[in-house]
Specification:
By secondary structure, this protein is α/β, with parallel strands linked by helices. It has helices at 16-28, 48-56, 91-94, 112-123, 143-148, 204-208, 216-237, 249-261, 268-275, 278-282, 304-314, 351-356, 358-377, and strands at residues 2-5, 35-38, 59-66, 72-79, 85-89, 128-132, 152-154, 173-175, 187-191, 264-266, 287-295, 319-326, 340-343. The protein folds into 2 domains: 2-40 and 277-377, 3-Layer(aba) Sandwich (Rossmann fold), CATH 3.40.50; 48-268, Glycerate kinase, domain 2, CATH 3.90.1510.10. It is built from 13 helices and 13 strands. A 6-stranded mixed beta sheet has the order 3-4-5-6-9-10, with helices on both faces. Strands 2-1-11-12-13 form a 5-stranded parallel beta sheet. Helix 1 (16-28) links the parallel strand 1 and strand 2 (35-38). Helix 9 (268-275) packs across helix 11 (304-314). The protein starts with a strand and ends with a helix. InterPro entries: Glyc_kinase_flavodox-like_fold, Glycerate_kinase, Glycerate_kinase_RE-like, Glycerate_kinase_sf. Pfam families: Gly_kinase.
């Protein structure tokens, strides 16, 4: 019996690889002679770098970069095992978690540090860069990133605009003559699981600006600034990205990656599953097991369990999902190929305890799942 184990991380508890190890350990108590294939998964958000480094036997690179408020932070990115792909989480340099709640202000936060991660990846001679763009603290439309990479966003005096979303109001011209030439030698793919346009009521500022510390007045200003940025992009780059799905991701970073760097936005889970060759392993499997920390009605919109389930369904392989928490209308995942879903919690407990005991809970739950499967085989 061949069992493919392809979970996402259980955030704040276990990495995707640790989760896969726990699942394997539980199943081996019942099926010690089965063939186990572990493929750590992610959907472009937190944990994507670690998952792909683990899955490809790659390595992590750390470096000091500029954080959202301009202070130095320790950033990181991954290099695939064959050295051809760099994996970046923009949140590692420009993430909301890097800004204390009392200091959050989307008018001044910048994506400059994300540009530094890209620069370092280019210096490694990779052929492809994958960028996950979830969890940002920024609303600058990716302006800081472009400036870091050599692009010039100039005000009426011919000077670079100031950092943050507030600086976009002063933009009068875009000059990419000094953009890092190595960017032309790589393919850039963006793992993005939202479809927000750049501006408007469903755009970057109005949907995500408040959680980044913006006031109602600031949100309106930021939306106007991004609209102004979009007009200049149309004028100087002949690119119209204002209402393209995904352009509003990460405070407008999605749109800038498309317009300035010719990046391709893709569903994060589908992108990761392609990179790790998940389909090749699932096609001749007897069972697939996936999971993540929480499964609810939003899981069906491109989260890891659904991406894995689509592949399993393609080859008519049964798939079981596990989660730390089942909530909302989680049963919706049954309509998307999942055969069964289980919570790993056996008793009411605090969140702290649940996070600390994740490995044991997964191991025990999957042992029980395996025992039931064995009954069915008799």
């Amino acid at each position: 019996m061949k069992i493919v184990i392809a979970p996402d991380s259980f955030k704040e508890s276990l990495t995707a690889l640790e989760t896969a190890n726990a699942i394997e350990e539980g199943f081996k108590k019942v099926f010690p002679d089965a063939e186990y294939v572990k493929i750590p998964m992610a959907d472009g958000g937190e944990g994507t770098v670690q998952s792909l480094v683990d899955a490809t036997k790659g390595r992590l690179e750390t470096l000091s970069v500029q954080g959202p408020l301009g202070e130095p932070v320790e950033g990181f990115y991954g290099i695939s095992g064959d050295g051809t792909v760099a994996i970046i989480e923009m949140a590692a340099a420009s993430g909301l978690h890097l800004v204390p709640p009392s200091e959050r202000n989307p008018l001044i936060t910048s994506t400059w540090g994300t540009g530094e991660l890209i620069q370092e990846a280019l210096n490694k001679g990779v052929k492809e860069i994958l960028i996950g763009i979830g969890g940002s603290a920024t609303n600058d439309g990716g302006a800081g990133m472009i400036q870091c990479l050599g692009g010039e966003l100039l005000d009426k005096k011919g000077q670079q605009i100031i950092p943050g979303g507030i600086g976009l109001a002063d933009l009068v011209s875009i000059d990419l003559a000094k953009l890092n030439p190595k960017l032309k030698e790589v393919e850039i793919k963006v793992a993005c699981d939202v479809d927000n346009p750049l501006t408007g009521p469903k755009g970057a500022s109005y949907v995500y600006g408040f959680q980044k510390g913006g006031t109602a007045e600031q949100i309106e200003q930021l939306d106007q600034n991004l609209a102004h940025f979009a007009r200049l992009i149309r004028q100087d780059l002949n690119q119209d990205i204002e209402f393209v799905a995904g352009a509003g991701a990460a405070g407008g970073l999605g749109g800038t990656l498309m317009a300035f760097l010719e990046a391709k936005l893709q569903n994060g889970g589908e992108l990761v599953s392609g990179l790790v060759g998940l389909a090749d392993e699932v096609r001749n499997a007897d069972l697939v097991i996936t999971g993540e920390g929480g499964i609810n009605h939003q899981t069906i919109y491109g989260k890891t369990p659904i991406c894995v389930a689509k592949i399993a369904q393609r080859y008519q392989v049964p798939i079981i999902a596990i989660a730390g928490r089942l909530s909302g209308d989680y049963e919706a995942i049954y309509e998307h190929g999942v055969t069964a879903v289980f919570s790993i919690l056996s008793e009411i407990t605090s969140l702290e305890t649940a996070l600390e005991t994740g490995y044991e809970n997964i191991k025990q739950t999957t042992q029980n799942i395996a025992a039931v499967i064995k009954i069915g085989k008799k």
